[in-house]
Amino acid sequence: MKIYAMINQKGGVGKTTTAINLGAALAAQGKKVLVVDIDPQANATSSLGFSKYEINQGVYQVMIGGVKASQAVQTLPEFSLSILPSSPELSGAEIELIDVDQRETVLKEALEEVSQSYDYILIDCPPSLSLLTINALVAAKDGVIIPVQCEYLALEGLGQLISTIARVQKSFPGVQIRGVLLTMYDGRTRLAGDVVNEVRKYCPDKVFEVIIPRSVRLAEAPSYGQPINVYSRESNAAKAYEMLADEIIKQDTGQTESLKEINYGRTA
Questions:
Q1: How large is the average pLDDT for residues 197-214?
Q2: Which of 22, 60, 141, 184 has the fewest CB atoms nearer than 10 Å to its CB?
Q3: Where are the alpha helices (DSSP H) in the chain?
Q4: Phi and psi (nearest 5°) for 251?
Q5: CA distances (Å), 218 to each of 138, 184, 188, in order?
Q6: What backbone phi and psi angles, to 5 degrees, belong to 84?
Q7: Is residue 267 over pLDDT 50?
Q8: What is the pTM of this model?
Q9: What is the pLDDT averaged over residues 98-103?
Q10: Which of 35-44, 92-101, 174-183, 204-213 has the lowest mean pLDDT?
């Protein structure tokens, strides 16, 4: 069983998109997957068809109200996925956790109850280094996945994030980087290629081989409450997340076979 957190202090880089679509792609390969939405914006929750304003039992109640995670998990049989949903009231958890003993481990302890029911647990984090994000870092025993947008200033933000993770590691040595995922790649621009090359130089051996292309259909899918492999199965974005799932499974099981090629230059 693997637990990964999607983290980046910058918003709009593909954390939620990756949590949902990597989860759906892993599920399509027969893995039991739980997506945990720990962002008060609850975008992962709404992207899978739930109204974030109608969540009566979710991650907030699990972390603050004593509700068991198994009671709050919502199953989505049409996607072969499960989600521990979020809601805007989670924003109050920052204050409510201040006086809690071992407040950084609340999520980790909550997930222990359900962890053996899944092959993969993917945690979608807020775009900040908050107490919620630290909870996700501590819970993600197998590492963090860092989505990095293929645009200007990506390296600066990545450097800041890696420094932040290093600081957290001083208190929680188990925190580690699982991999950097390049997202929103547009092969028509020279800048995107330059960013890919620079990120790979900056983080050798830590960058996933698969690159997620910029995609209109990928942006549309959440409005229909569907992952990309359901909304547009033949799109390049769906194929990219399928290949990312394949890459992660092979790495997790010690396999080294090369991956299929994909034309990342297309934006469909």
A1: 89
A2: 141
A3: 15-28, 43-47, 59-64, 69-72, 93-96, 106-111, 131-139, 154-171, 190-202, 216-220, 228-231, 236-252
A4: -65, -40
A5: 30, 10, 18
A6: -95, 100
A7: no
A8: 0.91
A9: 83
A10: 92-101
Question: What are the distances in angstroms from CA 60 to CA 17, 36, 116?
Answer: 21, 11, 21
Quick one: how many helices (H) and strands (E) in the chain? 12, 7
- What tokens appear for 241 in the block? 């997340």
Joined together, the tokens standing for residue 41 give 């914006």
| CA atoms of 60 and 158, how far apart (whole Å) | 29
Q: Answer yes or no: are the C-beta atoms of 179 and 230 closer than 8 Å.
A: no
The mean predicted confidence, pLDDT, of the chain is 88
End-to-end CA distance of the chain, in Å?
33
Taking 90 as the threshold, does the pLDDT of residue 194 lie above it?
A: no
- The hierarchical CATH code for the domain 2-252 is 3.40.50.300
Task: For residue 34, name the pLDDT band (cuts at 50, 70, 90).
Answer: very high
- Residue located via tokens 């909870």: 135
Q: How far apart are CA 96 and CA 86, in angstroms?
A: 16
Q: Tell me how crowded residue 253 is: count the other CB atoms within 10 A of its CB.
A: 7
Please identify which residue in the block is written with the tokens 């420094």. Answer: 163
Report which of 236, 243, 234, 152 is spatially closest to residue 199, judged by C-alpha positions.
152
Give residue limits of the domains in the chain.
Answer: 2-252
**Mean pLDDT for the stretch of residues 116-142:** 92
What span, in angstroms and rounded, lies between the C-alpha atoms of 119 and 2? 6
Number of Cβ within 10 Å of residue 8's Cβ equals: 28
